[in-house]
Write a structure and sequence with these properties.
mainly alpha; about 60% helix; Monooxygenase
């Protein structure tokens, strides 16, 4: 029996049909059989279509789906397609997220604060910056209220601004030693016939 041909003989009452003379409505067994045949035929067509044609069909099918069916498709995709990027701070407890952030240096914490509002909130908590201040012996001379946030980060920035960092000076004896070593190296390399690159 062909997929689109109605049966020649059928026992029982006359079949009700819709949109065509070979889509049975009141005969569940025949309905299931025709559905499976059409489903297999659609699968064969889908396998032969190009990627663009497949995308167009998928869009058409999604637009015809109800909201419940679209949610079903979304659930199927979540189960089948691995997540490309996942924000660990939304899945882990806050204490574990802060523990991970505690390994970062202050510059990296400031960069993380630019990722999202949630990361900004986490990376500016006093639990992280207080430890970095106390490591250098930088204390605050007041007790912040529970409503004040980011006090230790501000204190860390102020203390860093007050530091006067100068570039270390190279002593003359060290410079002479390095120059002598370079001349000796040039003589040694030249003895092998190799050029000395600066």
């Amino acid at each position: 029996m062909m997929a689109f041909a109605p049966p020649k003989t059928m026992d029982g009452p006359k079949l009700q049909t819709k949109m065509s003379t070979w889509t049975p409505l009141n005969h569940q067994l025949m309905n299931d059989k025709v559905f499976e045949e059409r489903r297999a035929l659609l699968g064969k067509w889908f396998d032969k279509w190009t990627d663009g044609q497949r995308r167009r069909i998928l869009i058409d099918l999604l637009e015809r789906c109800s909201l419940a069916q679209q949610k079903f498709c979304s659930k199927q995709l979540q189960d089948r397609v691995p997540v490309v990027a996942l924000d660990f701070t939304t899945k882990l407890p806050r204490v574990l997220s802060l523990y991970i952030f505690s390994f970062l240096d202050p510059r990296s914490l400031c960069r993380c604060a630019q990722v999202s509002w949630h990361w900004k909130y986490l990376t500016e908590l006093d639990q992280l910056w207080m430890l970095k201040c106390l490591r250098f012996g930088w204390y605050i001379n007041f007790s912040p209220t529970p409503f004040e946030q980011g006090i230790w980060k501000k204190h860390y920035i102020e203390m860093v601004k007050e530091l006067h960092v100068t570039r270390p000076k190279v002593s003359l004896s060290l410079w002479e030693t390095w120059s002598g070593s370079r001349e000796y190296l040039s003589i040694s390399v030249a003895s092998f016939g190799l050029p000395l690159t600066a």
